[in-house]
Amino acid sequence: MVIQRRLPVWMKVPMPGGPVYTDLKKKLKSAKLHTVCEEAMCPNIGDCWERKTATFMILGDICTRACSYCAVSTGMPTGLDLDEPNRLAETVEKLGLKYAVITSVNRDDLPDGGSFIFSQCIKKIRIKLPNCKVEVLIPDFCGNWDSLKRVIDAKPDTLNHNIETVERIFHRIRAKGDYKLSLELLERTKKLSPQMVTKSGIMVGLGETLDEITQTMKNLRSVGCNLLTIGQYLRPSKKHIALAKWYTPVEFQELSEIALDLGFDNVASGPLVRSSYHADEQHESVLTKVK
Question: Could you give all domains of the chain from N- to C-terminal order, each with its CATH number?
Fold first, then answer.
């Protein structure tokens, strides 16, 4: 079945370019910081940047993995920028953020997978802006649980690790990843820090079935995952895995209802939803339920 390349009407967004967007772009460039908003071609970049929210991508812009869905450049990174946590914290302070999201490329070339830099970023932001909440979207660290503990010990407010897709097609989508390892990471997080808010995300449109999506949700709930994002896969280029289906807004609503019935505290499900979509609101929903 050939999927039409033209975007459905519900996938179309205005071109970014407002005054706040332009100002933020300049500040990020001057600080020599990367954002996943730009590197992964996020469709929400205009909306988020106009709201003065951005997802920072640390540890460079070259990933040691080549996942078949991802637009981030792949190759062998060189060096490690030990001053990056300072620049990041200073930029977060200048922007006056109340909620900062930090993610990274995979750095399988580093013994700790980059966990030291993650922990330093969290700590430096805490010093500059004590009231700023921090969410980290981490890689699997190749199953290095000391690295996971190092990040958890820095006390992020939310720990996010995306499962990305269902088990049957996982290795076709994430050749160097492991479905069960990703679940174990989330499970170990809860064991190390039972009160830690955990989060994961699923892309749809890669050839999965509804039953498989539901099973993936059940697997995530079985390891105590609190928050979930579900978004439409967009093919970055012809060299990336082909799109299998456009999900409609109605279907995304149905997926949200299934997830909520399974016990997730909050679900962001929609065509343009990405990992950090309204991340602050998702985190707040968990705190509200606890109260």
Answer: 9-290 (3.20.20.70)
